[in-house]
Amino acid sequence: MPLTGSDCLGYPWRVTGVETVRGVDGSVERSVHQLGRGRDAVRFRLVDDTGAVAV
């Protein structure tokens, strides 16, 4: 996996950000925004005595 360096066949990912706004009265408001998301996978070949198949 690109983010952790661990081997895997597929993975989803999501990036979020937090925005903090301070009002003139001293109030604090936070909001969470999704900045991106996706998923990825790698092809691999499964082989046994009967043959092989790309997955």
UniProtKB/TrEMBL annotation:
| Superkingdom of this protein's organism | Archaea
Annotated protein name in UniProt: Uncharacterized protein
